[in-house]
Design goal:
This protein has six domains: 127 residues, no CATH class; 157 residues; 131 residues, no CATH class; 157 residues, no CATH class; 133 residues, no CATH class; 205 residues, Rossmann fold, CATH 3.40.50. It contains 28 helices and 36 strands. α20 runs antiparallel to α21. The chain is elongated and about 105 Å long. It comes from Arenimonas metalli CF5-1.
Amino acid sequence: MGMRFEVFGAALAGIDAVQQARFVLVAGAAPRALQALLEGSADEAALAKALERAASAPALSVSLPGVRRIGAMLDLPPVRARVLAGLAAWCRRLSAAGPRSVALSGAARGVSPAALVQALCALPEVSDAWFEFAAPGASLWEWPLRIGVPRDDAALWQRFAGARYGELFKVEPVGHDDRIVDLLLCRGDLRVALGAVPGARTVADAVLLLGGADVDEARLKDGIAALASRYHAGAIGLCAVAAGEEQAWFQALVRELSHNRGLPASLFTARRADARRQEQGDPAIGDFPAPLLHADPGFIAGTFIADAAGRLAARLQDAPKEATVVLAQDVLGNLGLDTRLARVRQIGRALKSQLPSLGWTNEGGDARSLVRVRRALEGALGRIDTAAPVAPPAMRAPAPMPADDGFAMSPPPDDLAPPPPRSGDAPPVMPPPNDLPMAAPPPDDGPPMSPPPAAADPHGAAPDAPPGDPRYVQALVLREDAPEAPDAAPVRLVPDTDYRVRVHIGADRGGPQVRANVALDETRLPDQPEGHDLTLAWVPLSPARDGAGRRTLPPPASAGIHLPRAGDSSAAEFDLRCGAQPADFRARLLVLHENRVLQTLLMTADAAGACALREENRYVPGFASASAGTPADIAFVINDSPAGVSGITTVAGGAVSFDEPEGMKASLQSLRKAVAANVVVSVGDEDAALGSEANLKLMRLLAKHGASILGLLQAHYPLGEMATAARVQVVEAIAEAFFPVEFLYSGRSPLPEATLCPNAAAALAPGGEAVHAGCPHRDSRDHVCPAAFWGMSKCIERHAHGDSRHRLSVPTPGEERIGPFTSALLAASQIAQAEMDGPTGVPATLGKLVPKLTRVESWRAWEERIADTLPDLLVLLPHTGKSTIDPAIPSLEISNLYLDADNIEPLHVRAPALARPGPLVLLLGCGTSVAEIDFMGTVGRFVRSGAPIVVGTLSVIHSTQAALLATRLLQATGAPAHAAQRFDEAMLAVKRSLLADGHGMAFTLVAYGHSAWRL
């Protein structure tokens, strides 16, 4: 099965297979550094440093989202040539110490895991490859290995029980009695394993399926996650072993593990034919397909026998001072230890000092000697448990072995009983009973375990996730030259110094990391056994010196992490550069799912360099709301700096960029004033027409500003494909941050004399996307095209600023629809009263669409009718004035009565007794979505008070236009064709139809709220 590398970018299709695989290694190992080199913002030395740092890790970590991001850049011929010229040298840096174990992380749609592993392992630079997933609750291996085999598979049990090197393992039948094993081996494939329901609870640190996968790629990840959850496993391996060759494969696996190879390397080595096996009397093993291994990195690091020996030595050193034991001389002598040692602590210290000299080259030597030492110690002292508990209760529920604070020992179980004493062996000397704390009894001897977990559905269903500790975004600051975390005290930032920041999501266990002040709200975590693949975007907001000594904003970066249903996520690392003053340091951390922003956090430091992480904004209070939506193609996060400079963070395709373009704020203010002045006059008493001079003047003005702003953003964006996005998310990192993405223009800036595109009307009609795509004038400066405006061609989702204090209404599975509307509440400004009367007035139109309509004349009456009529539709045609207390505070007027923006509360939005999602709020007046000062925006106030969707306007409009907008929107959304349609799609269709009819104020119509709401 070949690997189709074009899933990482179309340009890879023309490169040979070896270069393709090497590109995956380099781009995934150092994506940020390689991207900076290709963009010209860093030099070759910076990439070399990043590659050397990646090569220094035990396993080469390769990020698949990073590969995909860099792969898209290869569409440019100069970039492709630069990459191909450097690949060989870059790969040599990664494999200078020999073939590498490759740990693959992050999701990449369309990638076949098995084919990718096969392709990578064909490289001489790669010894093995495996996929990371987070399972921090997995235990650590102990030798002799406990091997579990299904009790019903007697033939396999007999083959393994009769395998060579039997001193190194013990085969146990599993399935009818509660068992804990290091390695569970099953002859079936993934489908068979998911369908088999154990008769008793089995906990297996690793599960290997000898029949391979035999499921389609779409269900592979779900099945592996379900199997890992069932057995609390830290690794799931799919190994295609031919029938009849299981024993030879198993012998080779145990032998490779005993040579101090980790599980990935042992699996890959065991599956290859080896002439040495025949010399030693083993049958040759066929060269089976490469195994497919999904594992937790922490667990993999503990599968080396040298680590098991180190844990045993450390445990022995924790024994009470008086603990002694007499062992046979050859037991200690085989490991080079002083045969006269008797104190347990001394044995532990001696073993630790001897570890560096152990070669592990002969399975009959050091490995067997270590097992004999352990057996002898346990024969005298009781079971020694070296597997420290590392998971919260939710992961083990209940843990198979309760944690113990002391030297964990207990009477040995049958499988670890010492061999019968030989003549000449001295009898063991037991310490006084109270000197050694006893461990919990082994599974077969102690209290019964809980029933086995509910069987996972092979089609993706899984048992409910158990309750766990709250999980927070946490950041650990590391010195650039320090490979590991500080012991206790957090690192404090020093001026003009480089650091690394390691970010993960997990329970708060203390330590030197800083955590967000607000936990992730997981009360509605959807039923997805595999958890979530998230993106973290790191966006520096304060300048610092670069390599040339210039003060500039460090480049942003992004990385993928996996958040399981319980436990900690995987981690991502970013570069942190402190500027001249630590107190000025600011960086934004975005949490995204499917390119949609879930949460924004701001990292700051005080004058002493102590860092803090606080939530800026929260857009959804749980992952369930995101599951109902469609991935966004582009996400914009809008903010203003402390100095008032407008900043825009852009996230798309796994890449992130940040820009504070000079003059952006002034340009936006100019645009807003121009729109307010021109929209009012664009539709008056004249007959509306798309090509009228008023509309053409408005579109030229918007297009000039929109093309200019889009050009600024594209100049800093690595892919340059923003115009092709279909769905856009705009979120406010601070209240009322203003960015009219609707006015961005994908065509060339039109000339002052530009005319309307002759295909404009057809491009705005239903199905007009194809017309616009094939229009010969779409990039002409002599024509202005309404379909080139983002507001007329893209589904746009806007989120007002909100946090955990506010009542945010979001769609959840099964509760995604607002409407059909049954009760409406209506109020209007005094200057709009003319639109309230007659057969074509707003009340008459609403009466045809909503069974119950209530019109009010005051804000007091509005509050009362909210409570007793339970409206699911609110229609306000107010005038936006200024507060009598402070002119900077906007105020909404109806019937000559004013309500200041800061007085808008939940009682103005939603009745507590309303038992369904809603209401939809139409706030159609004079600039209702724009405020002059923070926290005072009227649209934001309605959103934060519980409205799922609020429709507002970006500029001042006339009362007749407000009435027309309300009427047209309700008529369109109430039509059968819009039933159960996503609101952002319906909104786009309404704006396009309004503009096609010549109503230029359609440009000002915007909606705030989650795009997954349906009508």
